[in-house]
What does this fold into?
Amino acid sequence: MSLNIADFVSSSPLMAVTATALLLILVEASRKGRPGLSFTLSMAGLFAASVFAVVNYSDEQIVFFGMLRQGWYANFLNLVFLSAAMLTVLVSKPYLERQGAHRGEYYILILFATIGMMFMAGANDLIVVFLGIELMSLCLYVLAGFFRTKDTSNESALKYFLLGAFATGFLLYGITLIYGTAGTTNLEAISKNLPTLSSQWMFMVGVGLLLTAFAFKVAAVPFHMWAPDVYEGAPTTVTAFMSTGAKAAAFATFVLLFHQVFQFTGSKVNDLIAYIAAASMVLGNVIAIAQANIKRMLAYSSIAHAGYMLSGIAAGNSEGQTGILFYLVAYTLMNVGAFGIVGLMEKVDDQNLQLDDYTGLSQQRPFLAALMAIFMFSLAGVPPFAGFFGKYYVFLSAVKADMTWLAVVGVMTSLVSAYYYLRIVVLMYFRDGKGDVAAQPAIPALVAVTSSAILLLQFGIFPSFIVNAVQKLF
Amino acid sequence: MPDIQPYLILSATLFVIGAAGVVARRNAIIVFMSIELMLNSVNLSLVAFSAQLGDVTGQILVFFVMTVAAAEAAIGLAIVIALFRRKQTLNLDEINILKW
Amino acid sequence: MTLESVIFSVLAASAVGSALLVVTRRNPVMSALYLIVNFFCLAGLYLTLHAQFIAIIQILVYAGAIMVLFVFVIMLLNLGDERKLSDGVSWKKIVAAGFCAALLMEFVYILIYSEPSPAVMSASMATEIGTVEYIGSQLFTKFLFPFEITSLILTAAIVGAIVLAKRKLD
It folds into this structure.
């Protein structure tokens, strides 16, 4: 056994981000108090990694002694994570400067979390899944508590940490029982022995524990209770990253395990996932209506979106997989965009975070209001934005898998969700404002939200661009 | 070689005791220690399976779990210290600016 | 009863007893000390499973490093015997206890009635697997990649701990 250069070449996106993260630590150690350089370097590293991911896109390989699977699946998701990270870095710089907490460590932690996500999407072994989740989560715990002098941020970090570590216990027990019955942690080997394994009780308990842990990580009902508190208390840009990158990574592993490895299509397991999906859609959307704080409202909306994506997993067919991957792209763009604008509006000491503060925004900041309206329409699933096609594909897959009831629940709750998304649009455009909503100009953040709006429109009008990238190689 | 079933049952018992501690206790440090108890109980299962299967993967995974537990302890206790400096309490019922 | 089963019973009983004490003590220092006792019991159980290396690491890393950190933080924050941290019995806890008891019954039921895996190896082979030499040779070949990931995790944890706990930044 020996390492090849090819191993490193095909995992070059991963290597690029890792090298950048380690370089940033050295830069921080030698040039204290100059976070601007860390910002530039991290953008450069993330961009280089995305280029590598595009170049290597269809290079299917199993590398590092069967630990990592590189190929279109990993690279597609790598591009999602890297875009989430780049957009987050762009919106973070002005936000952190305004909040007086612009430090280079922030970028280091974002990069390490991104590396963890890339491990999760590319894993070919349960050990790598476990370590990837831990690397990502540990960085996110710290990022949630990054505003050390704010009580809400501290509290958010503690809650996220305790519940995250609790979920880790379940994840690990699940992995252990699967290892005990399968005799290996290699995903391919488990997939091959699946028919004999799935008749064993111990194996199925292990799968159930994994399902619990992932329901925690994607914030699906009934394991969602941490999400609103953590999303509300964490710095807004960190919330943007947690609700997109981290959720996308959890779904990447979810699809990998429950779609490609376990393949319980049509079984009780998929029925269970369908119930979780339906409960998340109903609960998330209904409670979101009652929220007055915009971060909390978006947190409940993200629980509902987890439900929409889970219905693609419950369906268990290839349309479901296409649907989830498309949905992840759309969801990442629209949620980073929405939280990016919330971050632009937010003032020091949690001012300007209520829905009422958006009243009359179109008069003072017509451009921001227009962008926010695009994100809200897309989240509500209004064509021609990408959010519409995401929902269309996952609900279609549910219908094809004879789960029409799930698609019906999805469409009904989407209609409910239109109420609270469009309420913001109404407030911005049809009410007179108080007159002091003006957010400070912030070029990088504006670039980020504008480009995510443009991409949303592009993928909404030409969905085949992503659909082909997913289907061609599967 | 001893039969591993008693080890697995012991491990499940310890796991559930740890989980009960997490759910029932309100002191953040004790909750955290209960989580450590859960991770440890899983390690016992891993070593037992490893012995039964004659495969080293389980023991190596225990090694990784210990590393992760160490990293988690460092971060978790740092969060606890940051919180305690401002609030002077670790009671989860008093840490409630955000609706729980 | 053989000597092996006597040793197992003693260690298992003290592990369960100390675990119960960890989750029921009011004083966090006591909880931490019982947790250390629990870790020593587990280390003994690892020895009965012929996993010598893991047993040593268990004591060095868990009891020696992680728990020292816990005790240190508890002392630093002076949590001693604070009354306001203690918590009484409530309906919530009774529900939690019932739920956990049901969970345990289910686990035990499944563990007892699941078929044992076929491959059972000899004691000499088990002893060989548990040695430092064998684990090391596997760790740095087949498991080199996850091993490197743990180094990233530790680096990230160092950065994170400094960000959160350093007294003065900049």
User: Anything to note?
Assistant: The radius of gyration of chain B is 17 Å.
